[in-house]
């Protein structure tokens, strides 16, 4: 995943990289909840977020 993060950065793609080497690579490992929480806390317009989220 760090290689992907480097490529996104090199191509000016806005993203957040959260290294969690001990986390299982599984849908139920908690990363989706963290990502959604970060999206909800971001200002409108960032990450394509609308005011109604």
Note the topology.
Layout: H1 2-10, H2 31-41
Short description:
This protein is an all-alpha fold.
Describe the structure.
- The chain is mainly α and 53 residues long.
- The mean pLDDT is 79.
- 38% of the residues lie in helices and 0% in strands.
Proportion of beta-strand residues: under 5%
Biggest sheet, open or closed, and with what strands and sense? none
Low-pLDDT windows of residues = none
Shape: flat
In total, the number of strands is 0
SSE class: mainly alpha
Give the % helix: 25-40%
First-last Cα distance: 28 Å
Query: What's the pLDDT, averaged over the residues?
Result: 79
**Secondary-structure element sequence?**
HH
Provide a count of the helices: 2
Round the Cα radius of gyration to an integer and report it: 13 Å
Keyword list:
53 residues, mainly alpha, 2 helices, flat
């Amino acid at each position: 995943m760090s290689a992907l993060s480097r490529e996104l950065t090199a191509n000016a793609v806005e993203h957040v990289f959260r290294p969690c080497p001990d986390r299982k690579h599984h849908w139920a490992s908690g990363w989706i909840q963290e990502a959604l929480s970060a999206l909800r806390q971001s200002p409108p317009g960032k990450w394509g977020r609308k005011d109604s989220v």
